[in-house]
User: Fold these one by one.
Assistant:
Number 1:
Amino acid sequence: MAGNLRKRRNISAVETSHDVPSFGGVDSASDLSEPTSDLEMYSKEVLSRLIHDNLPPTPNNFALYFDRLLEDKSETLRQQINAVLEFEDNSDDEKTIALEKSLKSGFASIKSILQVTANLYKNMALMAKILAKRRSELGTNPDTSSVLSTVTALEQDVGKLNSILKKQVDHMKDLYQDTAGILKNVENETIYDNQFGIYNKRYLLNKLEQEKNLIEEFKHTSSLITIELSKEIEDVIENKKALMMMTRTIARLLMKTSRRSDVVAHYGNGVFAMVLKHTDITSAKRASERLCDLVSSSNFFLAEKEIQLKISIGIANIDATRSVEESLVCALNAMEFAYGNDAEDYSVCTKDSEG
């Protein structure tokens, strides 16, 4: 899943305005002041829009606007540019996620080794008991003194081996505890939710704090939405495994349809969050509508019963005047209100409602 974190399509519906020919190279004899391909023209448009919105043309802002403005372009141009982006994409976050998964896999292997060794120690202890029992049986026969002597020597050898193995197992336990402590420290710094294949709560809070600071500095507008499987479904489905599969399906749909600049994360207990950068409440509502429609068209089969998936969404501004936690609570409260909203499956925080 880690490789999918940045290969996304857009939630937003797109109006195709014109067909775009394939990218052209730059002729050495051409005038470099004029764009020679549609990609160059689009890049200049992105830069002009950044300057118009009074935002510094930093790499992050350029990438964000590059994705955002692409939504309004033709399907042809979007496909061509996305193909280029997939080839050059080398996200540091993806490398971090791959490292986290490798560490967890390595820790699982160490744990398995410890379990196997522990079983071996138990078997050696059992062998020692069997030898003791057989020695006792032989001791009742006076004609087996030589055999008894041999068994006694073997018992001593097994005892020595058992003692050595016990020390080694104790040493492995210490190593395991040290490794567990290291992994715990790593987990405290992770950004990936292995259960759902998306970012975790820690990463979400960090990104929200960063976006809040950027909004305070540059005065743009961004939104936060929280998403959860509707309680109407949770109330009628008792199969916990089926509910988990439905929740994972929603996580996959969020990743599949989000923009590259969006942050998709698991907030906790099956609640997901999306940071929609440079997106006002009106645009966030449109994105929520489309997301609800997409999920509702994804039916889930449980035994012979077909279940229509449904979600509830809460929408809030990422406001520079309030804390990240307050913005999250605002979106979560709106999501709770959406459960009882017969007209829409989403709701806007009362503090951010328009009009």
Note: Residues 12-32 have pLDDT under 50 and may be disordered.
Number 2:
Amino acid sequence: MSTSGLPVAFFVTGTDTEVGKTLISCALLTCMTQRGWRSVGMKPVAAGAVLQDGVWSNEDVVALTGASNLPALDVLAAHINPYLFQVPAAPHIAALQEQRQIDLGLIVSSYEHLSKQAQALIVEGVGGFRVPFNDTHDSADLAQQLQLPVILVIGMRLGCISHALLTAEAIAARGLTLAGWVANCMQGEMAYLLENISALQARLPAPLLGCIPRLEQPTPEQVAELLQVGPLFGQFELVSSNSITTAEQ
């Protein structure tokens, strides 16, 4: 654990849906496990599920669990994914369709439970930073309650600069730290990619953690090799089987 007594933890959000948050989250978990940390990925809200062997399953949750190395993950399933909706829609719509209500307090409680078990935690948001959960709260409210530094996944396509800068402003408005950002070329290399990345580097108050090219069948291990996580993890070191501390500068 860090000197604060809490695990090394980050909230992963994106400029939009389908920009590769889960892939980057799994890659970050891989980087954590490679450091010998007991790590777990959390997906507080997931919308879109299929029935497999009598159990409803979401592919993002399955991927995050697969990239985690915390023991007894099956026992922790309800904390890893407190809210799973069958309908592939925005959370507030999916919850309404299933006549359920998303309670931020329950999510925070699940996070606290996981933080007692893990040395490192990745919390993956849903959609963009301000996706509604209900009439009064959204994903940004959850990030604010968890008080985690944020990692922004930017889908590199036309319009991404404005989306990224607006998201960064929303993160700052919640009093949160943008810890880093990833340029993800999921849809293929965009025109003037380097120019767009340079514009983002000049304007975002956080380090670029990596530029991920379009990969046909990307794996977390493959993407982890493309990430520069020194700015994120460099200050932490494993000092025992049970603790992580801040390394001396």
Note: The longest helix spans residues 21-34.
Number 3:
Amino acid sequence: MPDTLLSRRKSEHLQIVADQDVAYTRGTLLNNIQIPHQALPELSIDDIDMSVKFFGKSLKAPLMITSMTGGAEFAGKLNHSLAEVAQDQGIAFAVGSQRIMLRHPEVTADFTVRSKIPDGVLLGNIGAVQLQEYSSNTIAGLVDAIEADGICVHLNAAQELMQDEGHRDFKGLTEKIAQLVESLDGRVVVKETGAGLSPETLKQLKSIGVSYIDVSGAGGTSWTKVEAYRATDPSLRRLGEAFSDWGVPTAFCIIAARQILKDKAFLIGSGGILSGLDAARSIIAGADIAGFARPALLAFLQSGTDGVIALIESFTKELKTAMLLTGSGKISALKNAPRIYTGELRDWLSTYNWSGGEEIED
């Protein structure tokens, strides 16, 4: 791995995420989704089918290890190991940011993990701001370079503003994303990085034909808080602390996304998913699959691939239990399970107005 400002920053990110309290104070609001218990489910646990289709391939469970920061010293080991786990568990996987590949092609091997996940869904990853710098064809080449099924384009304006070396210009990104969607025949997942997608942003993405969306809502890792830990400039540290809880909560993002996008987009619910029960709540709210990153990173740092396998097995067991206790034999049934929205989530749903005066239905 080349010793560059980018690689050092990515290593610092992973260290801070692993060692510091970087979670949102407010939480995901997924706990505000109450699921009525069904005492006569008329199901056998062995008959429950958790499979879903994603990018035309079958997943054994509706889970995805989402993109983590790329370009760090052990990015290669992390990508290869997590891809192998995803193959073993039958879930999807996205590599860390491939930005460093554009500047240092010699690190491509850190991201070429298709041999580890030959049958599964593998996605690349690039920042939306890189679309200002590189052509759609160049970015599409990142997909081909690692034989990925598609690419995640991450939006991280809040995080960039907290970095001394971060971007300050976010003009024209909607058009650039639209061009990439066209270049890749729709094989683009647009995602946030922990601050969530508002109804306004969701409507923008819908207007340009984005058909895969990862809400990455507030409630998990706060990258503004991460940058506050990392900052050496006191003014940037203060800025990161002031915006440490900035974002749209995960639960609200998912509900809003499903209402706005209807059945026109595949929806990934991520941002603070810490268990299979969280995954179940996100699917009930409208997600097609649930995504997580920090839990996988922590499990890997503590116990390697065995730790990540154990984590995913726990997630799937908890999700299957939630399905049985809601009388849901398939994921499609879980999506239609009864639910009650309470507390702060209900407040968001009942009072949020976006441009045009429309309201989110609760």
Note: The chain has a mean pLDDT of 91.
